Amino acid sequence: MAPSVEQTHGVLVLGEPLETQKEYAQLAKEFKFKKVDCKSREEAIAAVKAAALEGGYDAVLFPFGSQKGPINEELLGPLKGQLKFVTGIGAGYDTVDTKWLESVGAWYCNTPESVSDTTATTAVTLILICLRHATSLMASTKAGQWRGNNVLTPDARGFVVGIIGMGTIGKLVRNKVQALGMKVIYYNRNRLPASEEGGATYVSWEELLAQSQLISVHCPLSPATFHLLGAPEFEKMQDGVMIVNTARGAVIDEKALVEALKSEKISRVGLDVFEEEPKIQPYLLECERAALFPHFGSATVRLHVDTELEGISNFRDWVATGKPKNGVNDPLGKSTL
């Protein structure tokens, strides 16, 4: 079937879809379409150059696992003057030069909805592991020491969780821990409307640091949030505070985190992300009070299909409205970055 009248848009797909071949085939029926299975960044750059020479491609889509390094001018520069839309995979976009895309008039969309619930569940898993000292309980039991030197743990009821970043994932974490009886306070760049707070209490940055028994990180990594938590912030926290991070590793100064763990200023951590992945500070690997996951927060059986479908939905939303709901920048001139 020949493409429809939607020839005003051209779709360049850099990678092979894992679960949504049918949906991508439908795009090929409706739009000018080219799919290149790039095995390396060099192949991706070459594919972009070829598409730019051919002309007519204003949208670039990345299926799951197909991004080869940063999405930036080096990769997409040849499409300058044509490019209007890019969608990647996942909630984070710290490897995307959103400012450059904005400067050439192109949206960048992430896929937050498809990874949000699974990431929130992982965060709550780590919260519970910390709360109930699960790593220590498992270690003593497996070592044949039965209860060993384990002590009574905090109770979930009334336990104060401070959430940094009350976006989609933060709200889901709020709901899940509140169901267990925990109290939620939060800090956000802007306070949520009362109708969206869902029983959580907005506090200042200083109040969040001082009042939280456990802090769960859910903000994106940006120049403003790099090392948002470090030695000065740890000093303002309660003795024995716990930290959970399922956002991006570099939001926390990992070396300072290690020192705070050693001194037991921080009693326990639950980490799914690290500052220099896959490298991890040696002390974290040996510390019984550290629960560590290999950046696996959203990795469930639905991950591939859900993220790819959301990416396609981003594109269709942009075609239909000109302003996609998952846009993280604003080439129309009202950037919030």
From TrEMBL:
Q: Which SUPFAM superfamilies match?
A: Formate/glycerate dehydrogenase catalytic domain-like, NAD(P)-binding Rossmann-fold domains
Give Gene Ontology CC terms.
cytosol
What Gene Ontology terms describe what this protein does at the molecular function level?
glyoxylate reductase (NADPH) activity; hydroxypyruvate reductase [NAD(P)H] activity; NAD binding
UniProt xrefs under InterPro entries = D-isomer_2-hydroxyacid_DH (IPR050223), D-isomer_2_OHA_DH_cat_dom (IPR006139), D-isomer_DH_CS (IPR029753), D-isomer_DH_NAD-bd (IPR006140), NAD(P)-bd_dom_sf (IPR036291)
Q: Which PROSITE patterns match?
A: D_2_HYDROXYACID_DH_3 (PS00671)
Signal peptide limits? none
This protein's UniProt keywords: Oxidoreductase
Top-level taxon in the UniProt lineage:
Eukaryota
Instruction: Indicate the segments forming the D-isomer specific 2-hydroxyacid dehydrogenase NAD-binding domain, all copies.
Output: 125-297
Name all D-isomer specific 2-hydroxyacid dehydrogenase catalytic domain ranges: 27-329
- Which PANTHER family does the record match to this protein? 2-HYDROXYACID DEHYDROGENASE C1773.17C-RELATED, 2-HYDROXYACID DEHYDROGENASE-RELATED
The entry sums up its family as follows: Belongs to the D-isomer specific 2-hydroxyacid dehydrogenase family.
Question: What is the protein name stated in its UniProt record?
Answer: Glycerate-and formate-dehydrogenase
Identify the species of origin: Calocera cornea HHB12733
Lineage at the top is:
Eukaryota, Fungi, Dikarya, Basidiomycota, Agaricomycotina
